[in-house]
Amino acid sequence: MKFYNIIIKYRFWLSLLALALAITVNITSSFWPSFILYFIGVIGIASHFFIGPLRLIQAPMEAGNMQEVEKILKSVWYPNLLYKPVRSTYYTIKGNMAMMNQDFDSAEKHLKMSSSLGSPMPEAEGANKLQLGMMSMQKGDLKQGESYIRAAIRAGIADKESEAVAFISMCQIFMNKREFRAAKDYFRKAKACKPKSKQVLDQIKEVEKYISRMPG
């Protein structure tokens, strides 16, 4: 696996080397002995531009090495050439990185680009829509936030913590709309997810203060 990652990392330059060797063999011998080198060079360059190096991101992401993740993202010279599902993943990661840096405008732009491309994994699409919904709510656009969060729930959300966030956000939206029965229903769904993170639990406790006073 480590060897394969090295190949991906230096794929473009190795492909150029293969093409240079192919031309040399072609000149000094003939085309057919150089054919395999031409083939390797062309496939390598094509995969560099159409697939990219995103496979390399997993290890530094898990290690929390965001500088390395940023470096890998910058090595994608022409994102619009990436194969559509890969491009969607690229913009999702760019959006997540922007959110970590609290650059919400860039985060929204990248996540919308990813969303418009669709995702090969419904769970990733759900997470993307949820993030867009949360950003809309932060801006005070509850209507757009509701639309995105509904779409996230329909697409499916991979982990229970995020699912609880989606339900508690919908609860808050319906509390604001004074549709108390729906708010209570979403609140029950949020608690049923049994979240464990302090941030989500604190949010549930805060909403619970008002739920008990609601009619319906």
The gist of it:
With 216 residues, this protein is mainly α. The chain contains 12 helices and no strands. Helix 11 (180-192) runs antiparallel to helix 12.
**Topology as a string of helices (H) and strands (E):** HHHHHHHHHHHH
The first-to-last residue Cα distance is 58 Å
- Indicate the radius of gyration in whole angstroms: 24 Å
Which structural category fits the helices and strands? mainly alpha
- Report the average pLDDT across residues: 89
Number of H- or I-type helical stretches? 12
- Anisotropy-based shape: elongated
In total, the number of strands is: 0
Low-confidence spans = none
Q: Which percent range describes the beta-strand content?
A: under 5%
Largest sheet: none
Please explain how this structure is put together.
The chain has helices spanning 2-9, 11-28, 31-50, 58-63, 66-74, 84-100, 104-117, 122-138, 142-155, 160-176, 180-192, 198-211. It is mainly α and 216 residues long. It has a domain at 1-50. Helix 6 runs antiparallel to helix 7 (104-117) and helix 8 runs antiparallel to helix 9 (142-155).
